[in-house]
Design brief:
Blueprint: E1 6-9, H1 15-26, E2 30-33, H2 40-47, E3 53-55, H3 63-77, E4 82-85, H4 100-127, E5 135-140, H5 153-172, E6 178-185, H6 191-204, H7 208-219, H8 228-239, E7 250-253
Parallel strand pairs: 1-2, 1-4, 2-3, 4-5, 5-6, 6-7
Helix pairs in contact: 1-2, 1-8, 3-4, 4-5, 6-7
Length: about 260
């Protein structure tokens, strides 16, 4: 379905980003990866899906590096047709104890980076298809873009901002072929969440299994994690013809979290 398209997925060397990148690659899209940590392994996983894959290690807190990444993607594959703004970090603390440098980093990586990548991707998307335009911008927000949780002031602020940016981007492109939507997962068992499970287990002196059950039980009625594969399938839907008139939504896959 996406053969000949190019998808740039930020924060795609593991977790949600990698799951979405693999789902888009399975539909034929060439992939530009971004992120830290192991690159060779995830890159090989995507290449095994018989698409072209490239990597750029932009620090998503730095606008100049984001601009270089977008230029690199265009040089590799012509243009970015699908932009998935997924890069994110987390820090947990009460507001009065929240380190200022952590606040600044979370806002920069979780929110501002999506703005910078979007503003740089839009012109080529708008000019595609002989001026009719075609593009898909998918912002990975969170259920925390819809509701709040204590001790996550920066993360909740950034994710609410992502939902707002999604709506404005969709409205500004409402009469063309460029759509923008947000995915709002609940708990997804990524390395980021695993650290929270480990910390909970260590603090309470309980097993990882019990800590996991407690974590899910606090917020997620389904008592199960959403998977990167499920999120990838939703991203593919947004890119399909069936998603042509889905615009500006914040689509939660949260096991009923926000329904409470």
């Amino acid at each position: 379905m996406l053969k000949g398209k190019t998808a740039l997925v930020t924060g795609s060397t593991s977790g949600i980003g990698l799951g979405i990148a693999k789902a888009l690659a399975a539909q034929g899209a060439n992939i530009v990866m971004n992120g830290f940590g192991d690159v060779a392994g995830p890159k090989a996983e995507i290449a095994a899906l018989c698409v072209k894959v490239a990597y750029h290690g932009a620090d998503m807190s730095k606008p100049a590096e984001i601009e270089d990444m977008m230029k690199y993607a265009a040089a590799q594959f012509g243009q970015v047709d699908i932009l998935v703004n997924n890069a994110g970090i987390q820090h947990v603390a009460r507001i009065e104890d929240f380190p200022v440098e952590k606040w600044d980093a979370i806002i920069a990586i979780n929110l501002s980076s999506a703005f910078h990548a979007t503003r740089l991707a839009l012109p080529a998307m708008q000019a595609a298809n002989a001026g009719q335009g075609w593009g898909r911008i998918i912002n990975v927000a969170s259920v925390h873009g819809l509701v709040g949780s204590a001790e996550k002031s920066a993360y909740v602020t950034a994710k609410h901002g992502i939902v707002g940016l999604t709506k404005v981007t969709a409205l500004e492109n409402a009469t063309g072929g460029v759509t923008c939507n947000a995915i709002c997962p609940g708990w997804v068992l990524t390395p980021l969440v695993q650290k929270q499970v480990d910390a909970k287990a260590a603090a309470a002196g309980i097993s990882n299994q019990v800590a996991t059950a407690q974590l899910l039980g606090e917020k997620e009625p389904s008592l199960q994690f959403t998977t990167p594969e499920e999120l990838g399938a939703l991203a593919v839907f947004f890119c399909s013809p069936a998603g042509n008139n889905v615009r500006g939504v914040a689509w939660n896959m949260d096991g009923g979290w926000a329904a409470q």
